[in-house]
Amino acid sequence: MRRLALAVLASLLVVDTARPCTGVYVFQDGRALAGNNEDFWNPDTKVRFVPAAEGRHGRVYFGFGNLYPQGGMNTAGLFFDGFATKRLPITGMDGRETFAGNLIDEAMATCGSVQEVKALFARYDLTFLEAAMLMFGDRHGDSIIVEGDEILDKDGRFQVVTNFYQSRSPETEWSCPRHAAATRMLGKSKRFTVERVRDVMKEVAVRGRVSTQYTNVYDLTNGVVHLYHFLDYDRAVTLDLEEELAKGERVVDLPSLFPKKKSFERYRAERQAEIDARKAERVAKDVDRTRFPDLVGAYEVAFGTTRRTLEVTLADGALLLGVAGAGDDRRVELLPEGDDRFFHVDFDGTTGVRFVRDERGAVTGLDYVNILGNRYAGERVRG
Length: 383
Prior knowledge:
Blueprint: H1 6-10, E1 21-28, E2 31-40, E3 45-50, E4 59-64, E5 69-74, E6 79-84, H2 103-110, H3 114-121, E7 132-137, E8 143-146, E9 151-153, E10 158-161, H4 177-187, H5 194-203, E11 211-219, E12 224-229, E13 232-240, H6 241-245, E14 250-253, H7 262-282, E15 297-303, E16 306-315, E17 318-323, E18 332-338, E19 341-346, E20 349-357, E21 363-369, E22 375-382
Antiparallel strand pairs: 1-2, 1-10, 2-11, 3-4, 3-14, 4-5, 5-6, 6-7, 7-8, 8-9, 11-12, 12-13, 15-16, 15-22, 16-17, 17-18, 18-19, 19-20, 20-21, 21-22
Helix pairs in contact: 4-5
């Protein structure tokens, strides 16, 4: 199934408050390491390599089929990862610029230290982080947690982040068991090694319908990523960033880097069966498909302070939705739920589109609902 970069649509990090993740950063004797668990129900995981360009660092990103970076490292030894949180309004952004594009990618492409990230973020509106946090760490010993309104600096040898706002409650009230376990293990560690960070990530891994899809242990000092797939911590794939970037820009199916595992294949089949069932439950069988050509066109949608043009096209009788300029391979099929009402389901979640008509029956716009249930209105700008 071709997928739409839902996060690009909204120009934000797509997250779900039911999604747990854990990140750690450690620094000792001049060596910087970072670890993260990507905990989700989407088994369609990818690795994307982006070579350096003039004024821009090379970088590797990890994430899902929509290719939106969930975490990664650059050639300057800077890493980041994102963490879902409960929605919390961000204030104090008056007068700040709105970045036209992906601010996280801009940071990874242009920054070589946490201090540079802080300077970059101080210029721009960060309201896209109302339901997410970011961790950045560099090879020099600095790390931060960006909570939107607050930026928390590392205090001591390590820093841990999960899915709650540490600045919003006293440390005595922190109750996340993953945060507590990682903090306890790191606090008892005399030496920070790749193996020790791996063991911490193994301890806080998640099993069940939401599972740890992959784990990264970044050696920021040496530009190496140790990658583990689907709860298997006995087998690692080591990626030397400079060597991998020399092969050119490319996207790799993350599970293909590892031998097949029955547990993962079973898990992937179960998740696909869930999606198929959700489609079958909602799709309408008696929709008048001769009306589909009326819906084709371009729609300008305001996602907060960012405007995007969504394009609706028709191919082989199927209605497709995509972002203007993103390419045909980024379009997704809209399935009919009723007259002028459509939906799309994939591993990321369910999105919806309702086309709006005037009193004469002409299509004038659409309402787009993202996977978090947020509604965005769009005006038809081209038929």
